[in-house]
Amino acid sequence: MSGHLSPPRFSSHRRFLELKLSDLHKCSDLGSLLQIHSQIIRLGLHLDPFVAPKLITAYSLCRRPSAAAAVFDLVPNPNSHLFNTLIRAFSHNSLPSLSFLALSRMQLSAIPVDSFTYHFLLKSSMGILRRLEVIQAHIVKLGFLSDIFIPNTLIDCYSKVGEAGIIAARKVFDEMPMKDVVSWNSMIAALARAGEIWDAKQMFDEMPERDTVSWNTMLDGFVKSGEVDSAFDLFRKIPDRNVVSWSTMLSGYCKKGDFEMARLLFDKMPVRNLVPWTIMISGYAEKGLAAEASSLLDRMENAGLVPDSAATISILTACSESGLLALGKRIHTAAKKKKQNLTTQIGNALVCMYSKCGDLDDSWIVFNEILVKDLVSWNSMLQGLAMNGQGKRALELFASMKEEGITPDRVTFIGVLCACNHIGLIKEARWHFASMKKDYGIIPEIEHYGCMIDLLGRGGLLMEAYSLAKTMPFEANAIIWGSILNSCQVHNNVSIAERIVDELIDMEGIDTGDIAIISNIYASAGRWDGMAKARMKMKDMGKQKQAGSSWIEIDDAVHEFTVGDRMHHQADRILKMIDRLGKHLKHLGSAVEAA
DNA sequence: ATAGGGTTAG
């Protein structure tokens, strides 16, 4: 054999490993990482000061913070660099309290902190104003503001905590003795995020030098503020447009629904990576343009591109919004082909997509395939069951979720109340509504009140529904009034219906659908005068408000319905069936009442 | 020689 031609075994291993080691910190596949890690241990390199940080970084990338911590714990005398890497791992995996625990360990062992340490602590505290302020105080005392990375990070972090944050960000920016282009770019992004788009533009005009990021930041500001025309004016002036500039512009036109412009730019752009493809496909999908989305996905695959997790998630989300089950399934199949484990995020997006498309069986299958379920997974499944009339199963899921030790949040309770609503459990709903505040400290929001009001109304407790809508700590919106109005129709209650119409008129939220309902209510009460008046009013309003519609996808064809339309080619059969279902329900209802 | 950091698109 040719064994004598191969180099000695050990050195070949070693060379193989060296190749892997240089890129180890970029390894995002857990399987390969475990393989490399075991070889590293065999060679005794896991304590090497240049290898250990890379291992920690890799585990962080693979979303295994506890493995990262385990690598750290084996190193006998960790230095600042290793501590910083660990804090970054915690920060990337949203474990801020562990970041701070690491900081105290550093202080206890008298390991010097540096600006890197504080950089990662800032990133860990993203979105929490109070914490950012405390860290900033430390930073000032320790003199780390002189490292320009730090104030630049501060601007970014502050700008992500809303109203109060933007003032703090501005203060940091104004007090910087030296600013670089990143400082300006971060401040422009901050102002744009706060909705101060014209202040951002002024700053953009004033800044001493602009790079491509500056132009793209301003461009994105315009797009996110809905100023697509201003964005395009700016786009045309960009000296060196890159794929980000084109993509930002694309997303602006897609959100507006101007696919002619979007497609024009997409076909014209010189370089396309996954992002512009994703924007276009999701853009079409979000607006329900199934054929366009699907054929573009064909083209993308023919170009040899495979959706990554971001592309997968954003296309799935778009499918959820418009109920494109076929496209969603296609993306699911593509994701399965990759033979990688189902990640929590992709699993969640799939559960949500299947639920919103009404395909509960597949939703349930995916939910059970998610190995590491987070709160979002449970909430999505719960809401899916609740939305699709499986109230009982939803409440069972809520129970098992608590058994698993998952703490419910505000979204969970929207699902729970919605589930009670679907099966008419008024008593249980009242209990959960009280419990969310008492046992979990969650203050009910307008959505929770909305659920309760809808539930009371459907149960015929119209007066209670009405008074809850009047006394809750939020101003009732047209959706809430509309829901009680619907119930008034079901329970033939004229007087409350009239009050609600007054409320809707007061807030200028009345539409033709509401008038149609009140007209029906008058009609069934034999109040022909009221009915005629309502009909007049409806004619008056004309079609000034676009009626809502619903649609369903069957065998790749989308069927759309609006109130009172008979456009569908099988409208007669459909209406007959609805009539039959209605009678059937009435029959069941009276059977229940009799029992 | 080899390691952690800030701004823009899905």
UniProtKB/TrEMBL annotation:
Classification via Pfam families: E_motif, PPR, PPR_1, PPR_2
Indicate the transmembrane segments per the record.
none
The Gene Ontology biological process annotation of the record reads: RNA modification; system development
What GO molecular-function term can you cite, just one? Answer: RNA binding
| Keyword terms of this UniProt record | Hydrolase, Repeat
Q: Tell me the Gene3D superfamilies matching this sequence.
A: Tetratricopeptide repeat domain (1.25.40.10)
Instruction: Give the enzyme's EC designation.
Output: 3.6.1.-
PANTHER family attached to this UniProt entry: PENTATRICOPEPTIDE REPEAT-CONTAINING PROTEIN (PTHR47926), REPEAT (TPR)-LIKE SUPERFAMILY PROTEIN, PUTATIVE-RELATED (PTHR47926:SF413)
Protein's recorded name: Pentatricopeptide repeat-containing protein
Originating species: Apostasia shenzhenica
The uppermost taxa in this organism's lineage are: Eukaryota, Viridiplantae, Streptophyta, Embryophyta, Tracheophyta
